[in-house]
Amino acid sequence: MSDKQLTKKKVYDVLIVGSGVAGKYGALQFDENTDVLLLCKYDKITSNSNLAQGGVAAVLDLKYDSYEEHFNDTMIAGRQANDPEAVDLLVHEGPKAVMDIMENMGVDFDKKPDGTLDKTLEGGHSKRRIMHHKDTTGAEIVEKLNKQVENRENIEQCENSALYRLVRVKSGFRADIITNDVLHSVFCSYCILCTGGIGRIYKYTTNPKTATGDGIRIAYELGASIKNLSYVQFHPTAFDSDDGEQFLISESVRGEGAYLKNVNKERFMDRYDKRLELAPRDVVSKSIILESRRTGSNHFYLDITHEDSEFLKKRFPGIYAGCLEHGVDMTKDMIPIFPCQHYLMGGIETDLDARTTVSRLYAAGECANTGVHGKNRLASNSLLEALVFSKRAADDIKRCMSAGFPKVEEHPYSYDASGAPVPASIKTDIRSIMQRAYFVFPDQAAVRQGLFQIDSILKRLHGGKYAITTEFCETLSMATAARIILKEVEEQ
């Protein structure tokens, strides 16, 4: 297979890496005169965004709610470690982006019988400000954005394509891409990394197979600043099973009145926080772990059986069906839950225009550290952040292009992609190390041991002659992200 068969062109104005909300919404900001290549590591839909259940938070009714209250809720959830300027920007620009995807891109949020938006409440929010599409909000947004992308002749989506590395060249980058395990290259004047989080470095996560930290590793190798990668969020209510990819029970279930119960089927949050089940995620996760130590059991439940069964089926069709697949009827049975890895607040350091510390390189969405989330993300702020900062990245690139910044040109290159297959066991080892060392509460002894093991893995990956495939790319990214996280935890 030749390079010409893998992408339509060799030179693009903008390369966007990632098929979620940040990647697709960012691509849609460019007009027909801008050539955009949008890389999808697997298919056009698979992403963290697509699995988002709860909704997107934004203040659309200034009589009932206020930007100040959304700002305060975000800062409190983030334990005041947020960047206030970034949070202020998020809450003020977010509503416009939400209206844009509703009015111009066909996103269908649930409405009441009178036609007004049916907003829900989630942990950490002082007001009902979360717009949702049943319990599959992310899938609805991704689907509608994807339809828009496919209608744009200037945007080329390339599936089954992982970015292996970026190489600095004059006026841009050479992007080495693995498409169906064939390594090839394109050139771009600007790049926006929207590669999502790092969930797959854990044994148990709510994240899909795409979340291996590729963008973070690629930016790190380029010399970009990586900030607060140890700010990992553990969601308190994942369905308790042996599945590696855990089924998430959305925050909105507690927002609609569900109770958390321990092994004795008793509510317990009053021992830990006055906000009870609606405390922020990090508080609830830590409370569950402390309660497990108190009771000597890891058995916990989410109970919403006291609510009307027809309401639950209509409001949470995806969660209802998912629970049934695991043998649980949420209208009659308590849902077994336990915390697991869910989200990354840290990442590639960016400014308010999504610029990294590397010229012409941008980052948006979960792989970026905008400062919005602090040490703990407020529920339903993730899709909002993806919309706001991907647009700001695109707007800044358009300013640079309008100012006449030079465009990249194709340069000669060569590389050898041959080698032995990378052992699958390395990924398993990384997940076991992270699960032991840093799950809700860090274990410093396991952190030190884990760092030694990860260093050995990285030495093996860099020193061995492995074939450059998507599997190798992901393994290297996972090991790199794991080392940065454990090093930060060790130094705290």
Radius of gyration: 22 Å
Figure out the total of helices: 14
Main β sheet profile? 7 strands, mixed
Span from first to last CA?
49 Å
Q: How would you state the average pLDDT, rounded?
A: 95
How are the elements arranged and paired?
Elements: E1 11-17, H1 21-27, E2 36-39, H2 48-51, E3 56-57, H3 67-77, H4 84-103, E4 130-131, H5 137-150, E5 155-158, E6 161-169, E7 172-179, E8 182-193, H6 214-222, E9 226-227, E10 232-239, H7 251-255, E11 259-261, H8 281-295, E12 300-303, H9 309-315, H10 317-325, E13 335-344, E14 347-349, E15 361-363, E16 368-369, H11 382-402, H12 425-437, E17 438-439, E18 441-442, H13 444-463, H14 470-491
Parallel strand pairs: 1-2, 1-8, 2-5, 8-15, 14-16
Antiparallel strand pairs: 3-4, 6-7, 7-8, 9-14, 10-13, 11-12, 12-13, 17-18
Helix pairs in contact: 1-5, 1-11, 3-4, 4-11, 6-14, 12-13, 12-14, 13-14
Protein described:
The structure is a single chain. The chain is an alpha/beta fold and 492 residues long. The chain has helices spanning 21-27, 48-51, 67-77, 84-103, 137-150, 214-222, 251-255, 281-295, 309-315, 317-325, 382-402, 425-437, 444-463, 470-491; strands at 11-17, 36-39, 56-57, 130-131, 155-158, 161-169, 172-179, 182-193, 226-227, 232-239, 259-261, 300-303, 335-344, 347-349, 361-363, 368-369, 438-439, 441-442. It is 36% helix and 18% strand. Strands 1, 2, 5, 6, 7, 8 and 15 form a seven-stranded mixed beta sheet that branches. Strand 6 (161-169) and strand 7 form a beta hairpin. Helix 3 (67-77) packs across helix 4 (84-103), helix 6 packs across helix 14 (470-491) and helix 13 runs antiparallel to helix 14 (470-491). The chain starts with 10 loop residues before the first strand and ends with a helix.
